[in-house]
């Protein structure tokens, strides 16, 4: 069946009916209350109430977020209300299905069309005149409804698959936590301070970063650069000292240097197994010891004073080996499920592309 090609402005129009925010009792919708990509409206999200000019909308409208159009915020309200002027109510013409137009607006192709013509560099806004001049396929109303219903059906299946993958991911991660908890709780082991079984706990010093050099420079969560010189030549545990990643634990190996936002735990391997200590500190959630304030901070002194369980060195080796085997399996599962989620998240774009090219 041949579809008509029309301009978006021939299928719907801007309906900028102003309403006084000071006197209206209608619920207010801010742009942050619309979820990107899906268009779901969350009325529970706190927002600055519109007390000046707003636009009125009802259940006939499509709500298009013109501010930062790459966020792809297109909503279908189920109640009457008022919204920020950064949201444009679009009113479909007779013979036009609003769900069809909403899905069409959420296409990647629509975003690609709008973005080069937006105004403002830091806070881009869609040029509505340009958007309404976009050519769109427009079949008869019954076909529009059929396509919209089929998209909705396929999106629901995608959402179920996504929810199942997220639950599987959470379960895999909980296996790590549960096993750590099982091992480290309820055992009659000696307890000592971490500082007493370490040769040294101190901050790294390197502030240099480059793309050259043969030695790794470790930062708070991994390698951040390379250097021609090194400070350390023995495997050690690193802990993020400051900032958003404060308390993150990882291991440095070989010859390397360490940035000044990271703590280096140089253990005594006669009494403390490196991998055992690594898994133990992971389980202890070191972020909880961070000082309050705007910039979380864990200090070397806090780590030295930290009380840890200390089984025999042979028992530590056994536990560490078992942890490593379990964690390798779990991490493989996490990687597979994460890749599945990436694939699932790409499906809606393909569904919309097919739908508006007559393939559903």
Describe the structure.
The structure is a single chain. The mean pLDDT is 89. Helix 5 runs antiparallel to helix 8 (313-355). Helices cover 35% and strands 21% of the residues. It is α+β, with helices and mostly antiparallel strands and 360 residues long. The protein folds into two domains: 4-138, Adenine-n6-DNA-methyltransferase TaqI, Chain A, domain 2 (Alpha-Beta Complex), CATH 3.90.220; 190-310, Adenine-n6-DNA-methyltransferase TaqI, Chain A, domain 2 (Alpha-Beta Complex), CATH 3.90.220.20.
Name some characteristics of this structure.
19 strands, 4-stranded mixed beta sheet, alpha+beta, 360 residues, elongated, Adenine-n6-DNA-methyltransferase TaqI, Chain A, domain 2, 35% helix
Count the E strands. 19
Q: Report strand %.
A: 15-25%
* Tally of discrete structural domains: 2
User: What is the fourth-level CATH superfamily of the largest domain?
Assistant: DNA methylase specificity domains
Written as H for each helix and E for each strand, in order along the chain, the element string is EHEEEEEEEEHHHEHEEEEEEEEHHEH
Radius of gyration: 28 Å
- Supply the number of helical segments: 8
Which term fits the overall shape?
elongated
Uncertain regions spanning at least 5 consecutive residues: none
Overall SS class: alpha+beta
Helix content: 25-40%
Strand order of the largest sheet: 2-9-6-7
Any guess at the CATH architecture of the largest domain?
Alpha-Beta Complex
Mean pLDDT: 89
Major sheet: 4 strands, antiparallel
**What do we call the CATH topology of the largest domain?**
Adenine-n6-DNA-methyltransferase TaqI, Chain A, domain 2
């Amino acid at each position: 069946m041949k579809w008509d090609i029309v301009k978006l402005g021939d299928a719907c129009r801007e309906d900028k009916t102003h309403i006084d925010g000071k006197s209206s009792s209608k619920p207010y919708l801010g742009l942050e209350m619309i979820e990107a990509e899906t268009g779901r409206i969350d009325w529970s999200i706190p927002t600055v109430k519109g007390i000046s000019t707003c636009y009125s909308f009802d259940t006939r409208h499509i709500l298009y977020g013109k501010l930062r159009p790459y966020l792809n915020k297109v909503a279908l309200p189920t109640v009457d209300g008022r919204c920020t002027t950064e949201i444009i109510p679009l009113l479909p013409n007779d013979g036009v299905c609003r769900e069809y137009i909403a899905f069409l607006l959420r296409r990647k192709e629509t975003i690609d069309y709008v973005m080069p013509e937006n105004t403002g560099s830091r806070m881009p806004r869609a040029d509505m005149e340009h958007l309404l001049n976009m050519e769109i396929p427009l079949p008869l109303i019954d076909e529009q409804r059929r396509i919209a219903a089929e998209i909705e059906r396929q999106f629901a299946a995608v959402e179920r698959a996504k929810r199942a993958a997220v639950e599987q991911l959470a379960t895999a991660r909980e296996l790590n936590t549960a096993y750590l908890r099982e091992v480290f709780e309820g055992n009659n082991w000696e307890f000592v301070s971490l500082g007493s079984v370490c040769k040294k706990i101190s901050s790294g010093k390197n502030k240099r970063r480059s793309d050259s050099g043969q030695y790794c420079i470790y930062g708070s969560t991994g390698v951040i650069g390379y250097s021609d010189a090194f400070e350390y030549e023995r495997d050690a545990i690193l802990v993020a000292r400051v900032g958003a990643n404060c308390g993150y634990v990882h291991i440095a190996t070989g010859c390397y240097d360490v940035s000044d936002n990271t703590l280096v735990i140089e253990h005594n391997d006669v009494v403390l197994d490196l991998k055992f200590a690594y898994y133990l500190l992971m389980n202890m959630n070191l972020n909880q010891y961070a000082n309050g304030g705007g910039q979380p901070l864990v200090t070397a002194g806090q780590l030295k004073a930290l009380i840890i369980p200390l089984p025999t060195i042979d028992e530590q080796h056994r536990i560490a080996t078992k942890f490593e085997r379990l964690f390798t399996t779990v991490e493989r599962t996490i990687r597979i499920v994460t890749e599945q989620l990436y694939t699932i998240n790409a499906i809606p774009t393909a569904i919309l592309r097919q739908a508006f090219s007559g393939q559903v």
